[in-house]
Amino acid sequence: MPGEADDALVQDAAEVLGTATIKATVHGVLTELVAAARRRHFVELLDEGALDDLADPDVPAEAWR
Fold first, then answer.
1. Is 50 inside a domain boundary?
2. Whole-model pTM?
3. Cα–Cα distance between 57 and 4 in angstroms, integer?
4. How confident is the model at residue 4 (pLDDT cuts 50, 70, 90)?
5. Burial 31-63 (b: 16+ CB within 10 A, else e)
6. Residue 30: which domain range?
7. How many domains does the structure of the chain reveal?
8. What span, in angstroms and rounded, lies between the C-alpha atoms of 50 and 65?
9. pLDDT tens-place string over residues 15-56
10. The three-state (H, E, C) secondary structure of 1-65, written as one string
11. 46 domain residue, yes or no
12. Is the Cβ–Cβ distance between 36 and 44 less than 8 Å?
């Protein structure tokens, strides 16, 4: 049925997250999902060279002047 979750999957997620209610489990899963997406985005930025300047010793040195 639409809107219903797989009970076994919810239980597995609750065990992983250490949650006691479905609401807490859903909140925890959504929090983890968003955090994972943000980490992936950050890695993509790193892959694109967003922080490459930090490898240049002159750049951080200039920041402290």
1. yes
2. 0.73
3. 55
4. confident
5. eeeeeeeeeeeeeeeeeeeeeeeeeeeeeeeee
6. 7-63
7. 1
8. 22
9. 999 999 999 999 999 999 999 999 999 999 999 999 998 888
10. CCCCCCHHHHHHHHHHHCCCCHHHHHHHHHHHHHHHHHHHHHHHHHHCCCCHHHHCCHHHHHHCC
11. yes
12. no
